[in-house]
Amino acid sequence: MYETIAYDVTDGVATITLNRPDKLNAITLQLNSELRKAVKQASSDHEVRAVVLTGAGRAFCSGQDLGDVEEGTDYGEVLRTSYAPVVKEIDACEKPIIAAVNGVAAGAGFSLALACDFRLVSDKATFVEAFVHIGLIPDAANLYYLPKLIGQAKALELALLGEKISAEEAKELNLVTRLFAADDFEEEVRAFALHVAQMPTKAIGLIKRYMKEGWNTSLPAYLEKEAYGQRIAGLSEDHQEGVYAFMEKRKPVFQGK
Ligand code: T3D
């Protein structure tokens, strides 16, 4: 079904693997379209309770495939029709989305990692705001997410200078949820993904939504939205299970309902 990505669901975890390793998983129109479809597929599959986005081979993603770029292309249109839909699909996903950054994340590859909820990073990974080196601005919501995650001054430095940063430096900047040794990376990602897949999925979706609501909402309006969200969470089976498990002094078994 997919040609430029691989898609697998095991134990409630959907793994989307960008699969053009000879080009360091550079993004073509087809890859962008398949990635959007795969995220949508994972979002709407009730069996899926966590999503992992990773890269095949030694890279996470090297950004736009520069061999695919035609002179005179209207990049604004490419962003509107190809990149923005992917970012919106990731943003709309109510399941936890984990970027498993196995190697270099450059350009729009960096942006994809930023759009995810968690960044699990191999100690062999690097991050580079490659855009400025080819006279472009960081896109695919890169400048939207980066300052929120690491602060404006550092985000500006990375975007303007385009210097490659190591996994360790990314960790110091707060870009990294967990840093793992490359040898243990797949195993650690699997364990982390399984862990979040067993959490109360509805509450996770609501936490994601309301965290973002707070960015552009006045406090009174936010408090009203929060009440609505907590009403939904409070009616979930997982909430009941959480309370029963606490009272019965046992580990909760959440079903994502
Ligand atoms: O189109 C629009 O709408 C605009 C949107 C733009 C969004 C963007 O993402 S702009 C930024 C695009 N990306 C880049 O500029 C990054 C280019 N790549 C690099 O700077 C480096 O390759 C890396 C830092 C990512 C990795 O360096 P290194 O030394 O580990 O690997 P390498 O030797 O440079 O690359 C290995 C191969 O992958 C090589 O091919 P070859 O020589 O073995 O046949 C290289 O050409 C290919 N490759 C790497 N990145 C890309 C790529 N091929 C096409 N597009 C790439 N982005």
UniProtKB/TrEMBL annotation:
CDD domains reported for this sequence: crotonase-like (cd06558)
Pfam family, one: ECH_1
Coiled coil: none
Recorded family membership: Belongs to the enoyl-CoA hydratase/isomerase family.
Name assigned to this protein: Enoyl-CoA hydratase-related protein
Species per Swiss-Prot/TrEMBL record: Pontibacillus salicampi
